[in-house]
Amino acid sequence: TENLYGSKEPWQIWKQFGGLDLEDGEDLYFFTRLKKKSVNGSMIDSRVGTRTWQGEDAGKAVVSRNSRKKIDSKKRFQYEKDKSPHNGCWIMHEYSLNPSLLPQNLRSNDLVLYRIRKNGEPVVA
To answer: Fewer Cβ in 10 A, N or C end of the chain?
Structure first.
């Protein structure tokens, strides 16, 4: 697992984990634990570096073709920081399993899979 919420900017994470060696259209994947803003709260702390990942949607259910049951959810985020050359250059998809599909001792909504995608080159004014 890698903590994607913290002091590193998306491009620093990209470089650290081999993103510079990827072909166009290839992505980096990470398992990480969600970090709540407060111990008893439900809000997730989405800070990354000097900004946050901005949610672009409320999430979409992913449904099994066979059983038609919800197996996970998918959310899309974008890195936004006004006046930064990296504004809009990073996309993150969050995938979380439906806890009811896991054994009781593993049920938790705090472990998710992230896909980070480079969405163009930084724009220097």
So the answer is: C
